[in-house]
Automatic annotation (TrEMBL):
Keywords carried by this UniProt record: Lyase
Taxonomic lineage from the root: Eukaryota, Fungi, Dikarya, Ascomycota, Pezizomycotina
EC identifiers of the protein: 4.2.1.17
MF-aspect GO terms: enoyl-CoA hydratase activity
InterPro entries the UniProt entry points to: ClpP/crotonase-like_dom_sf (IPR029045), Enoyl-CoA_hyd/isom_CS (IPR018376), Enoyl-CoA_hydra/iso (IPR001753), Enoyl-CoA_hydra_C (IPR014748)
PANTHER family: ENOYL-COA HYDRATASE, MITOCHONDRIAL, ENOYL-COA HYDRATASE-RELATED
Protein name: Enoyl-CoA hydratase, mitochondrial
Annotated family: Belongs to the enoyl-CoA hydratase/isomerase family.
Length: 294
């Protein structure tokens, strides 16, 4: 199964993706050429899709072509029935140093508005129903911070550098930073960060609840943790996982009463799935559930 997945899924070029990690843990691994220019895609473990931003010369700056590739890879993982969780990561030095400033510099209001500039960035938050983990090492600035915040879970190294420095460029966050960072850290701290353009560390991200886990090591240790969590998520009923992500996300949009009612309805709906019967029967029989994902 794992070998089949690995041969179907892809790694390209070589930005030190998982090869060292995999050789350390002794996992079989094979790769095939990918059509992508700016990202690598791999399946480090069954059920886990990994997207590595790979534009080292620009510290993974998020140009339109980069996002097109990210969205394409996300859509492929979303369609792939064997994938249960996705990880997005960058390099040791940069998760992503922001939207591509050189692409943005010449834009006019008219071109940005007419082309709905960076609207495709919302694909991840709006259309990807499988859980996505951001594994952040190095810089996650501007759009890089926003990309991490769009993911469902953030893991980072203690030395990671987050920030919304757009104010220093005469602009403001445009990829959801003013909304998602504010929900993550509260209004006063978000105001301070966005109005001063001050960075914050991975350690602070953990203390403030932006990151779920802070790893005291480098990218390799970080990825190891992210993969473990993705594997755990991918081992559960895929239908229950989709439902769990959906209800947690509703908490960001609905009132508490509406959110609790929404959750209850989805909870009721899951009694119509095979996996609810499989999960509860397996518990009663003291067996490991074999999910049908239906
Ligand atoms: N866009 C385009 N190119 C970028 C970039 C970006 N966001 N960030 C870095 N690069 C490029 C640099 O121009 C440089 O390219 P050249 O070698 O061709 O000059 C290369 O990446 C390496 O960068 P540095 O030499 O600057 O590396 P450093 O280690 O000295 O500094 C850094 C690292 C502090 C991250 C610095 O690169 C930096 O400040 N980058 C910009 C960060 C930023 O302002 N991000 C917000 C962008 S705006 C935005 O994201 C809007 C939005 O909300 C959608």
């Amino acid at each position: 199964m794992f070998a089949r997945r690995c041969s179907r899924l892809v790694a390209s070029k070589t930005a030190v993706p998982l090869t060292s990690y995999l050789s350390r843990v002794g996992r079989p691994y094979s790769s095939a050429a990918s059509a992508y220019e700016n990202i690598l895609t791999e399946t480090p473990k069954p059920g886990v899709g990994l997207i590595t931003l790979n534009r080292p010369k620009a510290l993974n700056a998020l140009s339109s072509p980069v996002f097109k590739e990210i969205n394409d890879a996300l859509s492929k993982y979303e369609e792939d029935k064997d994938i249960g969780a996705i990880i997005i990561t960058g390099s040791e030095k940069a998760f992503a140093a922001g939207a591509d400033i050189k692409e943005m510099a010449p834009l006019t209001f008219s071109s940005a508005f007419s082309n709905n500039f960076i609207a495709p960035w919302s694909h991840l938050a709006n259309n990807v129903r499988k859980p996505v983990i951001a594994a952040v090492s190095g810089y996650a600035l501007g759009g890089g911070c926003e990309l991490a915040l769009m993911c469902d879970i953030i893991y980072c190294t203690s030395k990671a550098t987050f920030g919304q420095p757009e104010i220093k460029l005469g602009t403001i966050p445009g990829g959801g930073g003013s909304q998602r960072l504010t929900r993550a850290v509260g209004k006063s701290r978000a105001m301070e960060l966005i109005l001063t353009g001050k960075n914050f560390s991975g350690k602070e991200a953990g203390e403030w609840g932006v990151a779920a886990k802070v790893v005291d090591g480098g990218k390799e240790e970080l990825l190891e943790e992210a993969i473990k969590t993705a594997e755990t998520i991918a081992s559960y009923s895929k239908v229950a996982v989709l439902a769990a992500k959906e209800v947690v996300n509703k908490s960001q949009e609905l009132s508490l009463k509406e959110g609790v009612e929404y959750e209850r309805r989805i909870f009721h709906a899951l009694f119509g799935t095979r996996d609810q019967k499989i999960g509860m029967t397996a518990f009663a029989e003291k067996k490991k559930p074999e999910w049908s994902n239906e």
